[in-house]
Amino acid sequence: MRLKVSVVAAAALLVAAVTGPVSPARADSFRADQWYLKSLDVPRAHAISTGAGVIVGLVDTGAYPHPDVQRNLLSGTDLIPGESGDGRSDKDGHGTEMAALIAAHGRGADDGVLGIAPSAKVLPIKTSNDGNKAPSKEIGDGMRWAVDQKASVINVSAAVGPAFDIEDAAAAAAKADVVVVAGVGNTATSAIIGYPAAIEGVLAVGATDRSGKHAALSVKDSKVQICAPGVDITTAAPPKKYVDVDGTSAATAIVSGAVALVRAKFPSLSAPEVVHQLTATADDIGPPGKDKECGFGRLNLVKALTADVPPLKGTSASAKPGEGSTPPTTTSTAGTAPSAGADPASNNMPLVIGGVLVGLAVAGGLVAALIFRRRRSF
């Protein structure tokens, strides 16, 4: 397990408090730490779509209004028995981390972290106070609540055992033309794909590492449909922190952001057609064709937004998401190859790191400028 601590010009500011004025602060490093933005060619994708007008239901531990994502957080709900609220609180941090991956807008041009769909809105639906424990009833209730609130994408960065509550909720989402995106699960906790990813019609997401290959932490199964970065992922955490995370949870949030981009760019596509747009343009990185590691391949954002994709086999109403996904006949642009790099070691135990405050002199006052990073798999 690795801990990163970033001190933003602490020494210089402390000296400046005594000796003179502080020079203008430079951009923080967190955007640069988001290696997957370059790997996915996000700047080119954002020139085409930023997810404007799309609501993503986030079924998770809530979402704290971190400065990098607060403008894109809607008032949601708290479905935990005995609790109440609008979902914009997060005791665990998992939901906030996913919200930022989906729709963080950052601060200014280069500060803070940036989400895959920075103009989309996140509807936080609190179903648990523990990112490692996801009760199936609350997950099902959260999915149905998102449908009722007109979300067009639902992110479930969790993998649990089979449950009728979740099956019924997934059916309701399909009927309402909502794309449900769910993680297949991590090998640290299960050898088989979990719910809701295992349900027909749900976009099941696995993870790739920094080299662009299937990540060892990601469960293999014939129902996996697509992979996205899920190792060494920098994101925001409550209240004003930044963390590095590993797992199919992160990959799922990235794909939910991609779904938001596609739904904004192609508003007439049905939910199955949106999934087909992503799977048909994915980069095949395993054995030719669909495989158990990454399904149809690795997410390619720019292709998904630009390629002329053949229609689904059969009618859009009857075709299953991912069924008959074939490569596009023409492609107007192609995404860049993933950045090279070793796959960082994954740790299977959650780590919660306490805070240490460093006083910095800014405009005659003291502020905390130590940014904490914790690595955990979920």
From TrEMBL:
Coiled-coil zones: none
GO biological process: proteolysis
Keywords, comma-separated and alphabetical: Hydrolase, Membrane, Protease, Serine protease, Signal, Transmembrane, Transmembrane helix
Listed GO MF terms: serine-type endopeptidase activity
Keyword Nucleotide-binding: no
Region named Disordered: 75-94, 312-342
Annotated Pfam families: Peptidase_S8
Listed Low complexity bias regions: 321-342
Signal sequence bounds: 1-27
TM helices/strands, residue ranges: 351-372
Biased composition regions of type Basic and acidic residues, renumbered to the chain: 85-94
InterPro entries (alphabetical): Peptidase_S8/S53_dom, Peptidase_S8/S53_dom_sf, Peptidase_S8_subtilisin-like, Peptidase_S8_subtilisin-rel
Domain Peptidase S8/S53: residue ranges: 51-297
KW Cytoplasm (keyword) present: no
Active-site annotation: D60, H94, S249
Entry similarity comment: Belongs to the peptidase S8 family.
Protein name as it appears in the record: Type VII secretion-associated serine protease
Organism: Paractinoplanes ferrugineus
